[in-house]
């Protein structure tokens, strides 16, 4: 008998999606392997967040299939967690309770004490243990987003979906959070999908980048990112090669989107 094969973390097959009469995604196909960090980039309105919502079971494709670990996803499954651009914190709950809230729904087998212990562990990992008893209104935007990251990582998902998680932050806080995400990924290991408009963010964090075209969206480019360590004398040149390639294609798609908007005005 042959050995059982593990299905891809995500398998998107010939997916089409429309809002009303407008086709947003047009027969897109790709796979994400277990442990891969994939970034989706593309012009505004190309369907990046829509595709992420289908992976999370919130939306269904008009045609084609989206499979997560070999199954059609449904909302609320414990194997996944999502980090949004908005912090999505409960203002009436403490920082600790906000982190523990994800565990309450994803890990109902745990006691309240166990949930609190795990929540505190992940607050320590993002440097916010001393703020555990504070409320979100007392935290900066960067600190609130770190709480959101702690909540997502605390449930120990096999798949982490991130939708522009740094988009609302200033440059300094975004840089700090990118470093913290990278550290958490290295510690934990999991499959991650990041939706971003930031090309440098995609290259710094990802092992692979998918560039989506202007709508109706297809896959314009599929780039595996294999950079040497940052202290290597070859890092800057290799990084520039990837960035030039991706930016050349992305610029074309942005210009296409702008031209359509001008014609529609």
Describe what you observe in this structure.
This is ABC transporter ATP-binding protein. With 265 residues, this protein is an alpha/beta fold. The chain has two domains: 1-79 and 159-177 and 188-265, 3-Layer(aba) Sandwich (Rossmann fold), CATH 3.40.50; 85-156, no CATH class. Helices cover 39% and strands 22% of the residues. It is built from seven helices and nine strands; from the N terminus they run βββαββαααβαβαββα. The strands form two sheets. A six-stranded mixed sheet has the order 5-6-7-3-8-9, sandwiched between helices. It has a three-stranded antiparallel sheet with strand order 2-1-4, covered by helices on one side. Helix 5 links the parallel strand 6 and strand 7 (191-195). Helix 2 (95-106) packs across helix 3 (112-125), helix 2 runs parallel beside helix 4 (141-154) and helix 3 packs across helix 4. The relative contact order is 0.17. The mean pLDDT is 87.
Give a quick summary of the entry:
The chain is of the alpha/beta class. α2 runs parallel beside α4 and α3 packs across α4.
Q: Topology, pairings included?
A:
Blueprint: E1 10-19, E2 22-32, E3 37-41, H1 48-55, E4 63-68, E5 80-83, H2 95-106, H3 112-125, H4 141-154, E6 159-163, H5 171-188, E7 191-195, H6 199-205, E8 208-212, E9 219-224, H7 235-264
Parallel strand pairs: 3-7, 3-8, 5-6, 6-7
Antiparallel strand pairs: 1-2, 1-4, 8-9
Q: Sum up the overall morphology in one term.
A: globular
Provide a count of the helices.
Answer: 7
CATH-scheme architecture of the largest domain? 3-Layer(aba) Sandwich
Work out the strand percent. 15-25%
């Amino acid at each position: 008998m042959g050995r059982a094969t593990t299905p891809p973390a995500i398998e998107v097959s010939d997916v089409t999606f429309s809002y009303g009469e407008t086709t947003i995604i047009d027969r897109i196909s790709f796979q994400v392997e277990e442990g891969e960090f994939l970034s989706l980039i593309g012009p505004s309105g190309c369907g990046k967040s829509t595709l992420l919502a289908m992976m999370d079971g919130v939306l269904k494709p008009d045609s084609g299939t989206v499979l997560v670990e070999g199954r059609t996803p449904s909302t609320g499954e414990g194997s996944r967690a999502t980090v949004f651009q908005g912090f999505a914190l409960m203002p009436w709950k403490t920082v600790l309770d906000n982190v523990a809230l994800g565990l309450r729904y994803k890990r109902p087998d745990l006691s309240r004490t166990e949930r609190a212990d795990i929540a505190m562990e992940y607050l320590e990992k993002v440097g916010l243990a001393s703020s555990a008893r504070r409320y979100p209104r007392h935290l900066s935007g960067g600190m609130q987003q770190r709480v959101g990251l702690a909540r997502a990582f605390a449930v120990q998902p096999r798949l982490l979906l991130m939708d522009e998680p740094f988009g609302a932050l200033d440059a300094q806080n975004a840089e700090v959070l990118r470093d913290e995400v990278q550290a958490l990924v290295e510690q934990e290991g999991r499959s991650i999908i990041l939706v971003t408009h930031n090309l440098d963010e995609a290259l710094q964090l990802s092992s692979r980048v998918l560039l989506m075209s202007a709508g109706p969206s297809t896959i314009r480019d599929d780039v595996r990112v294999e950079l040497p360590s940052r202290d290597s004398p070859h890092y800057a040149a290799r990084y520039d090669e990837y960035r030039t390639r991706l930016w050349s294609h992305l610029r074309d798609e942005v210009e296409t989107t702008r031209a359509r908007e001008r014609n529609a005005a």
